[in-house]
Amino acid sequence: MNNEQSLIYNQLFEIKGGNFIDAGSASVNVKKTLKLIGIPSEIIYRVSICCYEAEMNIIMYAYRATLDFSITPDKVVLKFNDEGPGIKDIELAMKEGYSTATSEMREMGFGAGMGLPNIKMNSDEFYIESEENKGTKLFIGIFIDRKPNNHDKSGEIT
Amino acid sequence: MENTDKYGHSIYFDSEKCIGDMACLKVCPTEAIRIRNKVAVMLKDKCIDCGECVKVCRSEAIVPLTNTFKDFSKFKYTVAIPSITLYTQFEKNIKPPQILSLLKKIGFDEVFDLSQASITVYRSIEKYLQSSNVKPLISPFCPTVVRLIQTKYPELLSHLLPIISPLELIASVVKSQISKRTGLKNEEIGIIYITPCPSKTILILQKLAYTNQGKPCIDGAIPISEIYPLLMRLVNQPVTHTTQCEHYDINGFGLKYGSLGGLTSMLENDNCIAVSGVNNIIYILEDIERGKLRNVDLVDMHACMEGCLGGTMVVENAYIARSRLNALIRYYGDKKPPIGKKDYYENRNIYDENIYKPQPIKPIDINIRNAIAKVVKQKEIYKQLPQINCGACGCPSCLVFAEEVVQGILKLENCVAPDFTKVKSLDSSPQPREQQPKKKEAEKTEDPGDTPLNNISLYSINH
Fold it and tell me: What's the mean per-residue pLDDT of chain A?
């Protein structure tokens, strides 16, 4: 039963911008599946932080997005692809504490400028691509068997 | 109260009495119940002892594992520690000292009041909050909450407040005192909790309640519902009103601990919240896991609605009980006792931080490759199912059924649901199941019968 095709679990989610009521539902479902598979809880913890931060970014800024979630025996991959305003200066957005959140968003406990840095910190692979007025693509990979952090040589998380 | 399995549950399913009517199947918040061979069975790794199934069972087949009076005959000296909830089960003119005195009349050698110990515990919590970096902390006083975190949220175990409950505080102190005073051995002294819910027996079954010397400090739990009739008989005798009751130093401020939100109001900290109801707790735990409650200091969690006042084994309804407790708090004065005042119990209340071990639910397969393959297959099977979660197969939902099929426990033929496609085709927007667009993929359709549109159409067919 272990042919390669059956070793990729894949699920698609749709996320609507501005939908605060359902906020985080994709993350909840992702986590449920990871638990069922028996992924170690520290990995689940990191995946769910990444997934939730990215999902909230979409809900706060983008119009709509898809989340392509897949699991292979080696890693968990989250691919976010949104239609939205895009990020003008990615380098700036990656800085801790930088935020364009409105006071409303801050009131809800977001917009501390920790979103993207937090995702990067908790992931092993992190790629971001953005085009202004078009949208943002985000690739997040987290290794299940805890290989060292690809982008962060200090590797504190792993 | 014999229970030897490692999960040590406080609830027992009696297959002789079960009529298999599925009431329990639907209410279980952790999907821990299946109907197999027409009777309900519990999946021990999933159950968190919340008691929801006990409440809805009509055939008395789901039995809380607690003690009866007979079990205490082995002790030479019995000590009762009643939950604060017991005080609220009687009319307002019957005050706690009288209830405590009556407990002695029905056979306990000594009785302790929890309101003083709650103050000691509250002070320790206040102190701990000031020094802790973990946010938010979670109160560990409801064993069901602890169990839920152990099974489903093991990564949050570090959020549990490492402080023992007032009950455990008293229990850990008095046993050695009594032993010294009476010369009896520790085994001859029985510390009995008068409990509003079965889940407290987990403390005993899982041997969680230990003294610092590693000896069990609580020996039994008897439900309020069992004690109540005995006390009521005495209360109703007019003589008892006139007989002098002993003096107990009840503390109004400490009584607050007995109600939901009581602890947070004692702390006078606006960053503390109180949550009750298993589903609400799951919601909050999800939020904590996502780091959403970083600004909250403490979450006081109780599995029963209205906290312990709404326990499964109480007599009075939770709302009346709350109003009576509020009356008692006013009667005894709700002012915070000055700090200089001596605590009744010495300060020995910090837990061993490692007491709560994770007890994760068994994954679908131990081997990660097999597990992924199985989950892929599960989703495929799920797509073929009617997705109405009727429960006729004995599983709480179609998704769970699909899991059981993958595991080889059930077969696809066990799905006996009628074909609902006909009903669906009467929908205002007819769409055969197979062609439903990606929305279905988006997993929001785990429970498709509940969307407002579907409800409307079904409703109109009925008329």
Answer: 80
- Each residue's pLDDT tens digit, B315-374: 999 999 999 999 999 999 888 887 765 555 555 545 555 567 788 788 888 888 888 889
A120 lies in some domain: yes
**Preceding peptide of B437 cis, ω within 30°:** no
- Tokens representing B414 are 């066990």
Q: What pTM did the predictor assign?
A: 0.81
Q: Are residues B301 and B425 in the same domain?
A: no
Contact yes or no for B441 and A13 at CB 8 A: yes
| Per-window interface: B 229-248 vs A, CB < 8 A | none
**Do B407 and B374 form a contact (C-beta atoms < 8 A)?**
yes
Q: Name B396's Cβ contacts closer than 8 Å, sequence gap at least 6.
A: B25, B26, B28, B31, B33, B34, B389
CATH number of the structural domain spanning residue A32: 3.30.565.10
Cα B304 from Cα B291, distance rounded (Å): 25
Q: Which of B443, B108, B347, B93 is nearest to B241 (CA)?
A: B93
Is the CB of B379 inside 8 Å of chain A's CB atoms? Answer: yes
Question: For residues B139, B142, B143 and B146, what is the CA-based torsion angle, rounded to 10 degrees?
Answer: -30
Domain assignment present for residue A82? The answer is yes
Domain limits at A131? 9-143
Range of the domain at B450: 368-462
Structural domains in chain B (count): 3
Position A113 pLDDT exceeds 80: no
